């Protein structure tokens, strides 16, 4: 589990394509890998991946086709930046919301509004996820815990503060980019419960 509070960004060093998976090597920020052991979970652009090698700041991950099909990791190239977060511990301060690292879908950036020190994004909602988006609700985008702004019929706004832009890869997000989306699980549970109750009342 993660909190959606991104620790910093890493740089893709190498991508090796194997028969049915790829191996990604990411250069993490200095100190990120302290006490990290093989088999640990790291959120890479919000995707929970298992560390194959991680004694240094060069982290190596194997990514299977199932994960590539559902996330933006399939579009990664050498020198690309990715958001990184280590898994939470019992002592972790949860400044965001609980994030599993299991991506529900991807959204395309439809509009970028750059301001003096902040940025607004309009992002398309995958059709099968639209019922889970509410104004002021939570969503994890590329692993970053964010509050949903205005929700339109098939898209939603996100308002990024200077701190988020400084620490994460969102400062470089551009029109047309694809973003990993993980919906807040408590929102899913609430919506599905209400739907079930309403169905039972009609039955």
UniProtKB/TrEMBL annotation:
Pathway given in the UniProt record: Cofactor biosynthesis; riboflavin biosynthesis; riboflavin from 2-hydroxy-3-oxobutyl phosphate and 5-amino-6-(D-ribitylamino)uracil: step 2/2
**Pfam families noted in UniProt:** Lum_binding
Which species does this protein come from?
A: SAR86 cluster bacterium SAR86E
Write the protein's name: Riboflavin synthase
Repeat Lumazine-binding: residue ranges?
Answer: 1-97, 98-194
Reaction equations catalysed: 2 6,7-dimethyl-8-(1-D-ribityl)lumazine + H(+) = 5-amino-6-(D-ribitylamino)uracil + riboflavin
The record's section on InterPro entries has:
ATP_synth_asu-like_sf (IPR023366), Lumazine-bd (IPR001783), Lumazine-bd_dom (IPR026017), Riboflavin_synthase-like_b-brl (IPR017938)
| EC id | 2.5.1.9
């Amino acid at each position: 589990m993660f909190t959606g509070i991104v620790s910093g960004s890493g740089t893709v060093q190498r991508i090796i394509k194997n028969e049915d998976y790829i191996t990604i090597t990411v250069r993490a920020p200095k100190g990120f890998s302290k006490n990290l052991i093989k088999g640990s979970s790291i959120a890479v652009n919000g995707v929970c991946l298992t560390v194959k090698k991680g004694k240094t700041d060069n982290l190596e991950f194997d990514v299977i086709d199932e994960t590539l099909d559902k996330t933006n990791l399939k579009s990664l190239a050498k020198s690309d930046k990715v958001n990184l977060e280590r898994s939470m511990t019992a002592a972790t301060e949860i400044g965001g919301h609980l994030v599993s690292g299991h991506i529900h879908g991807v959204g395309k950036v439809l509009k970028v509004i750059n301001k003096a020190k902040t940025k607004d994004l309009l992002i398309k909602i995958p059709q099968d996820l639209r019922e889970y988006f509410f104004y002021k609700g939570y969503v994890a985008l590329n692993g970053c815990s964010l509050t949903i702004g205005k929700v339109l019929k098939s898209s939603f706004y996100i308002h990024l503060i200077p701190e988020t832009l400084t620490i994460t890869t969102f400062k470089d997000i551009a029109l047309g980019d694809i973003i990993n989306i993980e919906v807040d699980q408590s929102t899913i549970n609430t919506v599905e419960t209400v739907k079930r109750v309403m169905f039972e009342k009609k039955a």
